[in-house]
Amino acid sequence: MAQKRLGKQTVVLVNPPSIISTATIVGPKEGEGPLKGYFDLVLEDDLWGEDSWEKSEAKLQQEAVKLALFKSKMVPSQVDYLFGGDLLNQIISSAYAARSLKIPFFGLYGACSTKSESLSLGAMSIDGGFADTVVCVTSSHFSTAERQYRFPLEHGNQRPPTAQWTVTGSGASVLSSKGNGPYITHITTGRIIDPGIVNANNMGSAMAPAAADTIIQHFKDTGFKPENYDLIITGDLASLGKDIAEELIVKEGYDISKIFMDCGIEIFDAERQDTHAGGSGCGCSAVVFAGYLYEMLKSKKYNKIMLVSTGALHSPTIMQQGESIPGIAHAVTISNER
Amino acid sequence: MDFIKVFIVGGIICVIGQIIMDTTKLTPAHVLVLFVTSGVVLTAIGIYEPIVKFGGAGATVPLPGFGYALGKGVIEAVNKDGIIGAFTGGITATAGGVAAAVFFGYLMAVIFTPKTK
User: Fold this and answer.
1) Per residue in A52-104, pLDDT tens?
2) Which helix (H) or strand (E) covers residue B55, if one does?
3) For position A260, what pLDDT does the model report?
4) Interface of A with B in 3-42 (CB under 8 A)
5) Residue B58 in contact with residue B11, Cβ under 8 Å?
6) Taking CB atoms and an 8 Å limit, are B116 and A53 in contact across chains?
7) Which residue intervals of chain A are DSSP H helices?
8) DSSP string of A123-172?
9) Domains detected in chain A
10) Nearest-by-Cβ selection for B116 from A143, A151, A160
11) CA A320 to CA A31: how far, in whole Å?
């Protein structure tokens, strides 16, 4: 009998792991955005001395992990598991980062939902007593994502107003069975919801119903009310998707409008930076969480937040075959109190 | 006066492409294929020739102009060599453009590396 389950999709962590340190590395565009003060390292050149963007993204992830561990005065050999993921085929950024880190590695793919997926699995393995220290890391890179999912950069294609801008960056979080918080206390794992959207330039609308479904289910499972939270923040719904999700959640009787934000909206200044609907990618919620939100939790400006990274689980091949985009969202409650 | 005519014709063709991209789900690749084939069709039914006469490079440089060159090459080759010209005429007429695209494309790829937007 699973004793830590709560309702249909939620688990409660009896021994909640503490997030003891985080690290963020971002590209130049992210470093010009509104959250620039919260990142550890802003790259001047998104190739970062490598000869391809793919190699640069692997380096982003590898260095983010090392930096996060350094802040906790640890080295990779002291880590029990690495939970990593990214957007590229065969999740190469994570695999090549893990190649040099030599930490036992679980490779994850949840598209842009991978950040909260990695935090979920990392937290569960600590709570279950299978690990004392784990690192959860994800990354994305504008140029690697653009040429895999859309067009070669040489093509210089136009982007419609609903399009989002893939964040260049990596965020790593070190989770430990010891430490003084903030703690991961609840996990609500999302199911796939597909509203039937076939336009890959409108991912926010494709993921919004999944985000709403997970958030509503979290309230039902835990009995929490919106008032229990200081902030509920989705991964990369961007301006279009956020409005849709908010409407769906409010309609169910949970008025989250005052505390509802989206990492994709916060990371860029859409007007000034010409990013259209907002940021996206595994790196988006990763750097917003590991940079800005972690700082807010540490300084007690926020005491209890729900991070809901959102993913669009399609591929260019299946889109060409006319299929719609399956959306997913995973929620993680992070609190300063156990 | 020639410049104005060229600008207007070329501009209208580009505006049509932009409107298609903004209002439909067609991608730039769809528009490319659509423009080239419509250039061929319009040439075959005799509509594109007068547009070229009026607009010059404004009609021959954009994508339908490539279709025009293909169509016109076929018509001329069929008149000269018979039905086999339907297969050889288009490629013969556009050979210079295709070879130049490959050559300059290669040259640019050697000289430059792509950058993030």
Assistant:
1) 999 999 999 999 999 999 999 999 999 999 999 999 999 999 999 999 999 99
2) helix B48-55
3) 97
4) 27
5) yes
6) yes
7) 53-71, 92-101, 114-127, 142-149, 203-222, 238-251, 263-267, 270-273, 282-287, 294-298, 316-320
8) HHHHHTTS-SEEEEEEEE-HHHHHHHHS--GGG-----TT--EE--EEEE
9) 18-176 (3.40.47.40), 183-335 (3.40.47.40)
10) A143
11) 34
Partners of residue A275 in chain B, C-beta under 8 Å:
none
- Residue A196 near chain B (CB below 8 Å): no
Residues in CB range of A318: below 8 A, 6 or more apart: none
CA distance A276 to A160: 8
Domains in chain B: boundaries: 2-111
- Going by C-alpha positions, the residue among A275, A197, A199, A271 that lies closest to residue A236 is A275
Compare CB distances from B114 to A154, A158, A168 and report the shortest one's residue: A154
B111 interface with A at CB cutoff 8 Å: no
The nearest alpha carbon in chain A to B114 belongs to A154
Is A124:A189 a contact under the CB 8 Å cutoff? no
Decide if B81 contacts A107 (C-beta within 8 A).
no
Among left, alpha and beta (phi > 0; psi -120 to 50; other), residue A300 is left
Identity of the residue numbered B4: I
Report the gap between the CA of B115 and the closest CA in chain A (Å).
Answer: 7
Residues of A in contact with B25 (CB under 8 A): 198-199
Placement of tokens 């550890």 in the chain? A40
Q: Distance between CA atoms of A111 and A80, rounded to whole angstroms? A: 24
Mean pLDDT score, A140-150: 94
How many Cβ atoms are within 10 Å of B47's Cβ, its own excluded?
11
CB neighbour class for A7 (10 Å; exposed up to 12, middle 13-18, buried from 19): middle
Residue A23 CB burial class (10 angstroms; 0-12, 13-18, ≥19): buried
Q: State the best of B20, B30, B116 to mutate against chain A, taking most chain A CBs within 10 Å.
A: B116
Interval A312-337: pLDDT, tens = 999 999 998 999 999 999 999 999 99
Picking from B21, B28, B116, the nearest residue to A46 by CB comes out as B116
* A contacts of B104 (beta carbons < 8 Å): none
Task: Give the Cα separation of A22 and A252 in Å (integer).
Answer: 35
DSSP summary character for residue A324: P
**CA A300, A301, A303, A305 torsion-angle sign:** negative
Report how far residue A69's alpha carbon sits from residue B103's, in angstroms, rounded to the nearest whole number.
50
Element (H, E) at A335: strand A327-335
Residue from the list A153, A198, A199 with its beta carbon closest to the beta carbon of B116: A153
